[in-house]
What does this fold into?
Amino acid sequence: MRKIRIADLDVVLGGGPDREGGGDGPLLVLLHGYGAPGDDLVPLARQLQAPRSVRFAFPAAPLQLEAGSPPDASGRAWWHLDMVELQRAIMQQDYATLTSRVPAGLSEARAQINALLDALIKDHQVTRQQLVLGGFSQGAMLATDVTLRAAEPPAALVMLSGSLIARQEWLPLMPARAGLPVLQSHGRADPILSYEIADELRRELSGAGLVVDFHAFNGGHAIPNGVVGALGALLGRITG
It folds into this structure.
């Protein structure tokens, strides 16, 4: 593993023949969730059963959250959240508000990830056909937004405990991604992002023609071992 600066983001690179992101194999770019440390998902690289040629990139979100505000979010974020409004909508099961909101800062985060992907393609021997883009929680939402809007999509999309947002913008974009492999997972008891909304997102993606491999599990806001196994299998298929 090594940490470098790419497109104004701190990125941990791993995997490949040298275990530091070298070579020309497929590349998984995985975006962490809200409030997590920038290297939160790095341990997954060691847990995944994937071909040795597979490489990993774990970028740290650019926004630093203040410790204790909120108490459980002392890490980093791709965009800021209105926690009071979010908690109100969750408590009232106001799914219309949760799925229709377009977060302030989403477009800026999307531009940062697009710049990162362009730099990886230019400087790290990877093509869009070898690129798997995904994330956990807020990172999954950002990965989905980038994928739906991309001029050329990645080889696959990974949504770990993500959610549907920007409904009026996302749904019309989905048919253009027909045939795209999607790995989606969500806990049935997730207290942070509704399982019902995740299942609605699955239905919308599948209805638009995307090939969704959906893993529901009896747990909360997490990445269980079964999902790690499914992600490793996806990377194996991309490797071919």
